Known about the structure:
The protein is an alpha+beta fold and 412 residues long. The protein is 62% helix and 11% strand. The strands form 2 sheets. A 5-stranded mixed sheet has the order 2-4-5-7-6. The protein has a two-stranded antiparallel ribbon with strand order 1-3. The two termini are 36 Å apart.
Amino acid sequence: xxxxxKKNPYDLEPGQRKDSGSGISGFxxxxxxxxxxxxxxxxxxxxxxxxxxxIVILAFLIIFTFYSxxxxxxxxxxxxxxxxxxxxxDYEDALNIxxxxxxxxxxxxxxxxxxxxxxxxxxxxxxxxxxYFNEIDEGIDRLIQGxxxxxxxxxEMGPMERKLNVLRQTLEKRELEAKLAEERKNNLVMxxxxxxxxxxxxxxxxxxxxxxxxxxxxxxxxxxVHITLEKANxxxxxxxEFFEITRYNxxxxxxxxxxxxxxxxxxxxxxxxxxxxxxxxxxxxxxSDENVTVSGDPVKLARVFNNILKNAVAYSxxxxxxxxxxxxxxxxxxxxxxxxxxxxxxxxxxxxxxxTAVFDKFYRLDEARTSDTGGAGLGLxxxxxxxxxxxxxxxxxxxxxxxxxQVELPGN
Length: 412
């Protein structure tokens, strides 16, 4: 008969990482993080402590000086005289009241006087402490106003100064990216509006010829109809790009996750691209286990893979292979599991400066609008957003005539 093995409460569950926030290791890690966070403002803490300490010493010195110079010698006589005049007491009675009522409780009176003196001094010293908040407030105001000058604060507020400057640089970078994206968008809309005229003029021209010459020979008529259809398809493509730009500005991506059969999703997508692949002589080869699955939104992920494959087909050399490699990386103690989908195609090497921008919205590799390849420059930007909200990442590499797009999704 098997005996049930007693479980060690500190053993890791399957898939649990050693550096998680639970357990003893997590406790010490959180403790170290808190200590590190507290030490950031150690200089400010020390200055506040020293300021408070000086105020306490100063309050004791003031009260001790007052007591030793005035109270101990003269104030007692004044109090006895005041008691005699106010209550018409003789000297002995007034002295006894002073002796037993005030003199015996002198330590309490001195302590109270020190406390009052400390509070008064601390109240005046608050103006020194409040200036730190004024510096923070001034720095935040400059961020709100968009002032790009460097923020400077007191030495002991160095950590806050660095954080505000990092925030300033981040906001400045985002503002610049937004301006570049808006500029790209405006240029793209202008180019699209210009390009729409060309196929539209052709469609109108050829239809007018067909209408004016009903007895046109069949061969010539068929030629004009074919050209008109091509121009109409191009016109539809340009209009769809307009819609794509509008949808990007108003869309809010919401995930509806489920278990996805990744192998058959990619296989079906390859079949849909068959006409385009056949036209260029390209071929897509899928390397994947048939049982590989991922958790995600099937519609959104299909759009990701569609955009990447469309990009690979558009920028591949004719008569070359496009390879899709799927790899499942299991859970380890150092890292969580993930599924890697890699798209590789043979094409013109993308320069590094352009490679970092391919996921920017409204960015196109082929800047010349005479090309029929490429769209509104949103496909890869949207793909990146979808992958990111799935908790994954996407990046591109290009060297020696090979272009690789890699998508990494969290494991099930």
